[in-house]
Amino acid sequence: MRGFVKYFFFLFLPVLFIVLWLAGVFHPRLSAKEIEVERKVVSGLKIERVKLLEKSYVSFAGTVVPSDRAEVSTRTMGYVSYIAVKEGDHVRKGQLLLRVDPRDTKAQIEAARQRVIQAEKNYASALAQYEAVKKTYERYKKLLSAKAVTQHEFDMVLARFKSAKAQLEAAKSGIELAKQNLKAVSSNLSYTVVRSPFNGYVVSKLVDVGDIARPGYPLLVLEKPPYRVEVSLPERFYGRVKVGDILRVYVESLSRKTTARVVELEPSVNPMSRTFKVKAVLSDKSIRGGFFARVYMEEPIKRTVLVPERAVYKRWDFTGVWVVKPDNTLELRFVRLGRRINGMVEVLSGLNGDERVVVEGLERACDGCRVGG
Length: 373
What we know:
The chain is of the alpha+beta class. Among the domains are: 46-54 and 303-371, conserved putative lor/sdh protein from methanococcus maripaludis s2 fold (Beta Barrel), CATH 2.40.420.20; 102-191, Helix hairpin bin (Helix Hairpins, Orthogonal Bundle); 224-300, Elongation Factor Tu (Ef-tu), domain 3 (Beta Barrel), CATH 2.40.30.170. Helix content is 28%, strand content 38%. The protein is rod-shaped. The two termini are 72 Å apart.
């Protein structure tokens, strides 16, 4: 019995004490709040909310064209003696553009005038001849009635009378023809002064002083505002686009965004290309003709979640984003990505669309860390 008591005090009690001490029986109990792990605070992160895309814009190639375009030429030939405009100038209707040396035209007018004078002289001569032959004819006509001349002699006089009458009519027609020629040549003098046919801009100057202006060859090219964008749209948009609609337009070479109001629609679809043409007036008055433009048309799509490309975190085969949870802590979440759209990337799975993600400072983010200021 005494051995059992000794064994109890010197072996069992020390072991029991050590077990209870290791179990924390002799330590004060801490609340859940007191044992909460202190989280690391990360600052300097840029955070954005993910974007939900429920409609998309598809672009189509278009061309900026003027409302009217004229290749100005002249109907007369001559040296260009004066040019009053340069490329880029704004001109008004009737404004002087250039002059052609009129000396050749004036010489032609003088020659035509002399032909009129000569035709009048020819007519006077033919009239005198006609009057003389007419008197002889009338006298022989009376003599024939009196049987004083033979029928043959009368027929010879009659033939001369008819010939003189025809020559008189021809001379009269010659005067009219010469006058018409003078009128036509004189009108060419007005074409030595070239004026603007409408209010517009000089977009191209094709001659210089001293060049020869030829009839029908363009000298200047003018364009009339307002400028429009012309685009051919697929037939699926037929009926969805109406006159008065506002289209989004981007002119790439100018890096300029603008809008255009639809003013004209092609009434039918081209059976070969399955497209129809749309014409829309640009709101930006500074854009000129010839530019390539993109016209954006809205198309409904399924609900799509987008995040900036710079928000994507890649580590070997892992692709994810740092999500800021409602308690302002970070969570690295795996995502599956789709297509890229203007600096954004489509998230096929992993996000619901109401999250906030880190877009800058990904290298400082850590799982479970708290976002600071």
